[in-house]
Structures are given as C-alpha cells and as structure tokens.
Design a protein that fits this description.
Number of domains: 1
Number of helices: 4
Order of helices and strands: HHEEEHEEEH
Strand order of the largest sheet: 3-2-1-6-5-4
Structural class: alpha+beta
CATH class: Alpha Beta
Largest sheet: 6 strands, antiparallel
Bound molecules: methionine sulfoxide
CATH topology: Beta-Lactamase
Shape: globular
CATH architecture: 2-Layer Sandwich
Helix content: 25-40%
CATH superfamily: GAF domain
Radius of gyration: 15 Å
Distance between the termini: 20 Å
C-alpha cells in the first residue's frame, strides 16, 4: 500500500470517490480497530480540512475519546448526551447544520459550528461513533452522510 494520500476532485463527491478505495486498501488487511480508526481520521482530516475529525468508542454506559485529528476534546460522553450521545442512543447519523440549535450540544471547542456524527455497528450494536466538526455552519449534507456511512462500514 502507498503511504501517500493523493486525493483529487472538484466536488466533494469526487473527493469521497477518490478517498474510498484508498481507505479500503489501508484497512482491509489490518484487524486492529484503533489503528484503522487512527488512519481513517487522518485521511478524512487531510482530504477535507475539517476542524476536528475523530472517534469515540462505546465503553459501558459512556463514549470514550478515541483516535482523532484536531484540537484536544472532551474525554467521556454519556449515552443520549450531545450530538455523539444522541447518534448512539438513536442509532442513526446526526447531521447538525448549526450546533447552537442542537439541544444539549457539548461544546468541546467554541469554534465548532456544524457537525456530523455517524454510528458504527458491530453485530447490530453501536460500538463507536465517527464525529466530524466544522468551524463553518452548514458544512455537512446527504453526500457526507452517505459516504461516511460507507466508510465506517469498512471498520466493522
Ligand atoms: N460536540 C460533540 C462533542 C464531541 S466534540 O465536538 C469533539 C457532541 O455534542 O457530541
């Protein structure tokens, strides 16, 4: 596998299309989930220049901070709390165009303005979430949801 990430594309969809096979190549022969989360966070972060890109893992009744790229973040989040805890509780992706309008949003960083959180399933249960934050409003849409849901499937 090449260790250099080369992503070209005019549109967001084109860049996801270039990124997906490269993520697949990196994770498919590596069984360690933490190692794969670390590379996926780095590849997404580098490709799109998000503010914060990372994972929280389910540990008992809480989400615990996992591999990420960006500024330091909250370590533990309870089920149902914030955008991450809501994605876990509802077992569905949360696309938040303005975090100030999301009741209970946890402001790890005051710079974060919009967010997407995608749950990761193993044997029908949420085992982790992918959380991406942007310092601009309205960053995430259906294109991100569909592609990120495909990307996290490669981790389970
Ligand atoms: N804002 C998130 C917390 C995690 S950080 O943004 C990295 C939330 O409300 O779940």
């Amino acid at each position: 596998m090449s260790e250099q990430l080369i992503i070209q594309g005019e549109t967001k969809q084109e860049r996801y299309e270039a990124l997906l096979p490269q993520i697949k190549a990196v994770v498919e022969d590596e069984p360690d989930l933490i190692a794969n989360m670390a590379n996926v966070a780095a590849m997404l972060h580098e490709t799109f220049g998000f503010w914060w890109t990372g994972f929280y893992r389910v540990e008992g009744a809480e989400l615990v901070l996992g591999p990420f790229q960006g500024p330091m973040a909250c370590t533990r989040i309870k089920k149902g709390r914030g955008v991450c805890g809501t994605a876990w509780l509802k077992e569905e992706t949360q696309v938040v165009s303005d975090v100030d309008k999301f009741p209970g949003h946890i402001a790890c960083s005051s710079a974060s303005r919009s967010e997407i959180v995608v749950p990761i399933f193993q044997e029908g249960k949420v085992i982790a979430v992918l959380d991406i934050d942007s310092e601009r409003l309205n960053t995430f849409d259906e294109t991100d949801r569909q592609n990120l849901e495909q990307i996290v499937k490669m981790l389970s």
